[in-house]
Amino acid sequence: MVTDAPPPEGGTDTSPAQPTTESFVEVQEGAEFGELRRTYRSFAFPLTIAFIAWYLLYVLLSNYAGGFMGTKLFGNINVALVLGIGQFVTTFLIAWFYSRHAAEKLDPKAEAIKSGMESRMEAGA
User: Fold this and answer.
1) How many beta carbons lie within 10 A of that of residue 36, not counting itself?
2) Is the pLDDT of residue 95 over 90?
3) What separation in angstroms does the CA of 44 have from each of 38, 40, 49, 101, 105?
4) Which of the two residues, 21 and 44, has the higher pLDDT score?
5) How far is 124 from 13, CA to CA, in rounded Å?
6) Residue 97, by phi and psi: left (phi above 0), alpha (psi -120 to 50) or beta?
7) CA 59, CA 66: separation in Å to the nearest integer?
8) pTM of the predicted structure, to 2 decimals
9) CA–CA distance from 98 to each of 36, 54, 83 (Å)?
10) pLDDT at 124 exceeding the cut of 70
11) What is residue 123's predicted lDDT score, i.e. its pLDDT?
């Protein structure tokens, strides 16, 4: 929302400068952003494909291998229950692994891009 209100008393506008569309496009086309995107994709895509394959295997086994899934391992615990719990465990492990990956690899690169953009904004202001 753009307003035509006068700057606050003292005659200076204290609001931070806003980046332009062109500056966002420039950053997006830069090598740093490309590296950030590659780092994210090299982690997210293989892990997503692996998890979907693991989930589909579970569903297919549940539908077409009832005898195998019903095999009792011990007591009332069968293969289906162990694999089902494995789905939950895998989900939490992926979330934990991603948070570590993001903190170590993605966040520093994103912060460098943000800092560079802010410094260019301050120099241009």
Assistant:
1) 19
2) yes
3) 10, 6, 9, 10, 13
4) 44
5) 15
6) alpha
7) 11
8) 0.72
9) 15, 18, 22
10) no
11) 73
Residue-level pLDDT at 20: 79
Phi first, then psi, for residue 47 (nearest 5°) are -70, -40
- The structure tokens listed for 118 are 């802010």
Nearest-10 Cα torsion for 48, 53, 54, 56:
120
Half-sphere exposure of 35 (CA within 13 A, CB side): 11
Question: Helix or strand or coil: residue 14?
Answer: coil
How far apart are the two ends of the chain, measured CA to CA in Å? Answer: 20
Q: How many residues does the chain have?
A: 125
Dump pLDDT digits (tens) for 33-52: 899 999 999 999 999 999 99
- 8 CB contacts (<8 Å, ≥6 apart)? 14
